[in-house]
Amino acid sequence: MIVINIGMHQPVLAVRVVPVVSTLGTLWCIDRLIRTVRMFYYSQGNTVSLIPLPNGSTRVVFKRHINCDPGSHAFVWIPAIRAFETHPFTIASATNTEFVVRKQTGFTADLHEYAQKHPNGELRAFFDGPYGTVPNFHAFEKVVLLAGGSGASFTFAVALDFITQTKNKRTKAIEFVWVVKEECTLTHPDSRLLY
Prior knowledge:
Blueprint: H1 2-9, H2 11-42, E1 47-53, E2 57-62, E3 73-77, E4 87-90, E5 98-102, H3 107-117, E6 121-124, E7 126-131, E8 142-148, H4 152-164, E9 173-179, H5 184-187
Parallel strand pairs: 8-9
Antiparallel strand pairs: 1-2, 1-6, 2-5, 3-4, 3-7
Helix pairs in contact: 1-2
C-alpha cells in the first residue's frame, strides 16, 4: 500500500512504480499460494486437542505428527476459533506436533476460552511449516537452556530432543533454568510439557 500511495502522489515516479508493485504483488501471491497448498497437504484429516493449562496457557496437540525440528515454528489455523487467521507458534515437543500458547488478546484468548469450556476437545486444524532453523546444540559438551514463562516452549523442545537422542555422546551436561511467576505453573497436573 505504501508503494502504491507513493506512486499516486508522485506522477513522475508512477511509471517506475507500476513494475515494482506488480513484481511485489506477484511474489506475495505466489507465497500465499505455496503456503496454502502446504497447509492443506500437511493438514488432511488432522485435528488438534486443546488442553487448558494454568496461568492462561493452552496446550495445542495435533493428532497427526508432522516431522519438525524441536524449537522451530509453524503457523496454526483453527477455523472454528478464527476463520481467517493463521498464527505462528514455537513447536514445544521433540516427539509430537504440539504447541504451548500463552493467552494474550484476540485469537489466543479465544483459544484458551474454548479450551476451558471444552477440555480435550478436538477441532479441525491446519498446519503450515516448519519454519526457522535451530542451532545444533548437540555440538557442545555443556548446554545451558534459559527460559521465562511461555518462552519455555522452545527450550523444552530442545531439552526433550536431547533426552530422546541417546546416541549423542558429545554433550555431557544439560542445565535447564525456567523462571515462572507462580508455582502452579510447575505443579499443575495438566502441565505435562515434559511427558
